[in-house]
Amino acid sequence: MQHRSSLIVLFAGTLFASASLMFVLQPLFGKLMLPLLGGSPAVWNTCMVFYQMLLFLGYLYAHFLSTRLDYKRQVQIHAGIILISLIALPVALPDNMIPPTDGNPTLWLVWTLFISIGLPFFVVSTTSPLIQKWFSHVGHHTSHDPYYLYAASNIGSLLALLSYPFIIEPNFGLATQRMTWSIGYIGLLALIAGCGWMFMRNYQVAEVASDAELEVAEEPDNEPSTLTKLHWLALAFVPSSLLLGLTNFVSTDIAAVPLLWIIPLTLYLFSFVLVFSRWADVIHRYSLILQPIVLLPFIAYSFINPAILPYWLDLSLHLAAFFLAVMVCHGELARNRPHTAYLTLFYLIMSFAGMLGGMFNTFVAPFIFQGIYEYPLMIVAALLLRPAVKVELNQQYKEWGIQAIFPVALFILGLTIYFSVSELGGYMDNIGTALIMLSGLTYAFRKQAVSLALLTGVIIFFIMGLRATMSNTIYQERTFFGVLSVRNSVLLNEQGKPEKYKEIFHGTTKHGAQRFAKGFETEPLTYYSRPGPMGQLFKEFDAVNEQWKVAAVGLGAGALACYAKPQQAWTFYEIDPVMVEIAQNPQYFSYLQRCTPKADMVVGDARLSLLAEPDQKFDLLMIDAFSSDSVPMHLLTQEAIQLYFSKLSQNGILAFHITNRHLDLKKVLANHAKELKYAALIQQFKPKQAQPLVVATDWFVFARDEASLAPLYKQGLGKWQKPALYFGMQPWTDDFSNIFSIWK
Question: Average of pLDDT values for 311-316?
């Protein structure tokens, strides 16, 4: 047996480098693909499914190679695959790849990823199981249990994933990132070659020197049963589905905060580091203890009564519950890992289950669920996978745990009931309080997996159904771009009397509303009200020229359409065809039918669609395409601004809707105005007096010269002002953008 640390450094370093490259490539290509599909969270989830599919194929290849072929042939075939993969360098998107506009683009996205990075990603995905399997044959004194090398792989994944938004993205453009990744890939191939050389060299020595020893060392335990394999499958499937379900849920129903999608994946990877560490047994025991404790406030606050929590606290509860569920599942996986003879089979089943989980969320759930219901479903499934045996608490927990932890949980429950009763009032008080008390009972079933899971499921799905009923949702549709819903609501009108109206939501963010009372049917509301920036702009410029040709990127309920004059030509650009169907359906909204029945409607990404338009076609172009608070960055770059102006007449105006809870988009646009020498004004509008459905909103306008904006600035209509100058900020381009530079 060898005790050389150089072997560990080589093999662990190769795994670390491979995982790092894998998890830099994921956000890198996600960023390249997002602009083509409007920045939807589904783009990230679809990319994840593609990576899981390639990971499974890589693990399948590694399993076949290491179990069916001798060691020399393994190295020869892998070398051939590596050489073929070099034709994909440097990694880049194919030219002229345009997504479909008449259907779900999921399959198009998967195919584009495959032809762009399929070969190098496949090679990277084979590294973890293959290198560990090779290490088990090199005669090192730890070769009998190479699973600890998996921690090196996951640490590399974790560091790469976190370094991307904090180090790589703010300092390097996409072209530099792609070239650097390609060079790093060649470095990885050199490390794999080194591992292959050591594998062949030491495998031969081990065979000649100590065949008997090797035979004993390699004698496996009994082959895992079918039931054991199915258990592995379930333990890997649920966390994978839960990962994508949570990502979709928090981006849709809590806050579409940029970079929020990375947090669940970081926790998911970190769980592997912990469960394959030397402290795995202790960590697993405490994960089992903490899971039902965290579950109590999680159900009480995040599902029954989320309105009283700030979004960051609600998000923290979701992440804590997710992390503990994943820790329990992955802890059980690590605890039941097989002999090294079945190492590649173990990883193969894990990767297959991960792929199935991703495919369920991406290809199945959107077609069978109208909401993000796969997320709570997997919460219940994770509870069902808790160990069936009773968890023996250690002596310390027996002494102080019951006296301390359970009263704390009851205190949290008491606060929940207090806030519910004091803030909600009426009939819902009784239902909410009863449900919260019922959620408290879940703790009593902490040692009974089935009872805990079923009670949790009943509570969560009951309250989700109740909430859908109480919200007066009359239409809901889940698309690739999110969950769209139309709701009936009530306001107090100018006479103080209740009045019904309709509103449209993308996730939890309102995207428009319409009143149907006499005299208000064509009144633009919310961000587009007549007292607001857009009302001021149309009032001033319609007096100058009523023959405008107008384009709007982003449709919503269609409120902007009611600024149109009969002699004007209007064009709407909308990426989601379901949004068009809703806005054109008079059962929901009648803005388009009443105000611009002949307006052109172009479905697809606006920037790609505008390329096909004649130059100087429009007099006014409005960009209002930011779903929830996510930002299609490709609509905010210098190249995008230059494209917009090429489509505007000489005196044309470009207007951006930049209302956002998390990002200071005015910094990006002010920087463009300075760099490109355009005139610009900004208004951060706040209503002077309370008016129904007139809300605060921010708008930014550009023109080629100040004279074109003079009617707004000189009249002092609202509070139109010249934007501030922001020094030291690197301009956003198609190659570079930095979210952290504009974080509020």
Answer: 79
CB 69 within 8 A of CB 572: no
Distance CA(290)–CA(282), nearest Å, equals 12
**Residue 332, domain member (yes or no):** no
Structure tokens given for 218:
């390699």
Which are the contacts of 465, defined by CB distance < 8 A and separation ≥ 6? none
The CATH number covering residue 621 comes to: 3.40.50.150
617 in a domain, yes or no? yes
Contacts of 427 (CB under 8 A, 6+ apart): none
Do 37 and 97 form a contact (C-beta atoms < 8 A)? Answer: no
Number of H helices, E strands in the chain: 26, 11
Sheet of 697-703, strand order: 600-603, 569-574, 549-553, 618-623, 648-657, 697-703, 679-685
Q: Which residue has the higher pLDDT, 452 or 58?
A: 58
pLDDT digits 0-9 by tens, 27-53: 888 778 766 665 555 677 778 888 889
Let me know: does 282 contact 398? Beta carbons within 8 Å: no
For residue 37, give the DSSP letter.
Answer: G
Q: How far is CA 51 from the centre of its chain?
A: 14
Which pTM was predicted? 0.77
Instruction: Give the whole-angstrom CA distance, residue 159 versus residue 731.
Output: 27
Q: How far apart are CA 69 and CA 92, in angstroms?
A: 34
Give the Cβ contact number of residue 739 at 10 Å.
17
Lay out the sheet containing 482-492: strands in order across. 473-479, 482-492, 498-506, 509-515
Does any domain span residue 143? yes
Q: Residues 375-393, buried b or exposed e (16+ Cβ, 10 A)?
A: bbbbbbbbbbbbeeeeeeb
- Please give the helix or strand (H or E) that residue 449 lies within, else none: helix 449-470
State which H helix or E strand residue 482 sits in.
strand 482-492
CATH code, domain with 72: 1.20.1250.20
The pLDDT value recorded for residue 716 is 58
Host domain of residue 679: 506-742
What is the number of alpha carbons within 13 Å of residue 185 lying toward its C-beta? 27
Determine contact, residues 236/337, Cβ cutoff 8 Å: no
Collapsing DSSP to helix, strand or coil, 472 comes out as coil
pLDDT tens profile 149-190: 777 888 888 899 888 888 888 888 889 999 999 999 999 999
- Domains held by the chain: number: 2
Q: pLDDT of 221-275, one tens digit each?
A: 578 899 999 999 999 999 999 998 888 777 665 555 546 677 888 899 889 888 8
Q: What is the mean pLDDT of the chain?
A: 82
Q: Note the pLDDT of residue 36.
A: 67
Pairing of strands 569-574, 482-492: unpaired
b (16+ CB within 10 A) / e for 53-63: bbbbbbbbbbb
| 313 within some domain | no
Residue that is last in its domain, among 171, 203, 219: 219
CB 271: neighbour CB atoms within 10 A?
A: 26
Place of tokens 């819903």: 485
- Last residue in a domain, options 219, 235, 266: 219
